[in-house]
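PROTOCOL LOG
Step 1. Enter all chains and additional molecules of the complex.
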Amino acid sequence: MNKRDTPTQQAAFESWIRAAQEGDATALNHFFEQLYERGKASLLSLTKSEAQAEEYFQAAVAKFWLNCVEGEKTLPKSNIEGYIYSIAKFYCIDQLRKQQRTKIQSTDTSMFANQAAFSEYPPFSIDQLEAAELQQKRRTIMHQMIQQLSANCQRLFKAILEDGIEKPKELRVHLGLSEVRRVSVLKHECYKRLRVLTAAALEKELTKRN
Amino acid sequence: MPQSSPDFTKDYELIRRYFDFELDETELNIVNERMESDPVFFERMRLFSASDDQILNEKEVSTAQKEAKTIDLTNRKSRSLMTRWRALAAAVVLLIGSLFAIWYISNSNVSPSQLAQTYWSESEKVTFSTLRSDDASTATEDALITASQQFQEEDYTASLATLSTIPTDDTGYHKVALLKGEIYFEQNNFQAAVDQFQAVIDHPNNEYNDYGYWYQTLAYLELGEMDAARENLVVMKEQRYLDNLVKGLMEEIE
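Step 2. Run joint prediction.
Step 3. Record the structure below.
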C-alpha cells in the first residue's frame, strides 16, 4: 500500500481517469471495487460494520473523484491506492471518535499502538461543541478570516457574498481581470488560503474555550 | 512520538494538501504516521475535515462544473457500491457549489422560493446526452440524446417537442419525465415539474429516485407547499438520498 505506483500503473490509472472524464468510468469503477475488496478487512477492523466500512471508503473515493476526475487535478506523486485507503481509514477513525466522543478505544492495535499518545488528549476537540454551535462558530470565523486575506481575495468574496455575482465572466469584469481563467485561479488560491486560516483560527477558539 | 507543530497554519496547510490529494509519497507517509501517533495532529485533521465539508472547496470552479453544470448519468443503474460513491461525489459538488450562497442566506430571512432558486441554480442537471442503455428503444435513446442537447443549449421548447415523440409506455419513460421536469422547472412551471418528478418517483425500480425527490422538493418550495417538501426530505433522509443536501435544506427550512 505504501509503494509508489510504477510508471506503468500510473499511466494505466491516468488513462482510466481520462476515460471517466469522457464518460466511461468502467475501468475506474473496477479499480475501486478491487481496491475496496483488498482493504475491506482492515477497514472492518476499525468499524466492525461492513456498511460503515463501505460508506467511509465511498467517501474517500468521492473525495478523489472530486479532485482528480471532476476537478481534473494532476494525480498525486504517490501511491493512489495507499492514498485513498489512508483517507478512508481517517474517516473510520474520525467516526469512532464521534461515537465515543471522549475516548478512543480501538481494537486495531496497529492503528493505536501508542496508547500513551492517546491518553494525552489534545487541548481542543471538535466534539466539545454541538454541531450547530460549531457550524455557527465556523461561519463567524470564516467571515473574520476573509478580512485577513489579500485585497484581491477580499474583493472576490465581497463580490460573491455581498454583491451576488457568481458567473466567472461577470466576476472577471467586476474584478478587472484580463481573462476568465484568472478568476478561476484567484478563487482556487483564495479558497485554499481561507480553508487553512479558518481551521487554524477555529482551533485557537476551541482551545481558548477549553 | 512526532510533535505537533506549534505553527497551526503549517499543519493545516499540510492537512489541506492531504485532503486535496497533493501530497507526495514522503509527505503522505508523514501524515499517516502522525495520524496514528500524534493526537493533536489527528484532532486537527478532524477539525479541518469537518470544516471543509461545510465551508469551501475550490471544486466549485472545476472545469467539469463550469461547463453547463450538467452531470450525465446516462448509464446509471441500481445503486451498487460504485454508483453510490459517484452519486455521493455529485452530492458533495452540489453542496459545495451552493455553499457560499446558502451560507450567505442562512443568516437572513429568505423565502422558500429564494431557497429553492439558490439550490436549483447551483445544481447540476441530469441529462442523457451520451445515452446508450439497455432499457430503452433506439428511437427513445436518440430522442433523449437530442432533447438533452437541446436542454443544455437552453432551447426548452425544442427539447419538449423532441421528448413528445417518445411514447409514454416506453420502458425508459422515467428518464423522459426527469428531463421534462427539469425543463418545466426552468420555465417556472412548477406544478408541471412536480407532476413529472412524481412520474419519476412512481416508476418501478428506477435509478433516479434521488434526483426525482430532490428536484420535486425544490418545486414544492417554489409552490409554497412546505409540508410536501418536508415529507420528501424525510423520505430522502430515510433512503439516504443525497445526504448532505437533504441535511442542509432541512436545517434551512426548520
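Step 4. Note key features.
Chain A touches chain B through 81 residues (CB under 8 Å).
The CA atoms of residues 98 and 127 of chain A lie 7 Å apart.
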